[in-house]
Amino acid sequence: MSLTPEKKHNPECPIEEFIRDNLITHGQFSEVKFDTVVDTACDEDLVKLLEYFDDMDMYMKRVYYEASLPMDDEYASLIENGTLVTFEDFKLN
């Protein structure tokens, strides 16, 4: 995941500012920063982030891939078989 040059310099909303400030290093998605955010952010901020990913068509499979998460757990299996596609699906299960 990378922000377009415009979004890096002119985020259009607070969540894009959050992404720029907390998930991006040198213009690229940072696994380390993502892990830190998941471990430390409040639930409300995580929900906003995941809803933003859904709104931008960055579904769970892509986020799993971008974050280099292991695809060998229960959630990975549900993503692979199409049970979980969006983060909204995750919230409903």
Number of strands: 2
**Radius of gyration, CA atoms, in whole angstroms:** 13 Å
Order of helices and strands: HHEEHHHHH
Largest sheet: 2 strands, antiparallel
Distance between the termini: 26 Å
Task: Give the strand order of the largest sheet, numbering strands 1, 2, ... along the chain.
Answer: 1-2
Shape: globular
> What amount of the residues lies in strands?
under 5%
Number of domains: 1
Q: Which consecutive residue ranges, at least 5 long each, have pLDDT under 50?
A: none
> Which structural class fits the helix and strand makeup?
mainly alpha
What's the number of helices?
7
List the helices and strands and how they pair.
Blueprint: H1 5-9, H2 14-22, E1 24-25, E2 28-29, H3 31-40, H4 43-55, H5 60-66, H6 74-80, H7 87-92
Task: Report what the structure shows.
- This protein is mainly alpha-helical and 93 residues long.
- The chain has one domain.
- It is 61% helix and 4% strand.
- The protein is built from seven helices and two strands, in the order H-H-E-E-H-H-H-H-H.
- It has helices spanning 5-9, 14-22, 31-40, 43-55, 60-66, 74-80, 87-92, and strands at residues 24-25, 28-29.
- It has a two-stranded antiparallel ribbon.
- The longest helix has 13 residues, at 43-55.
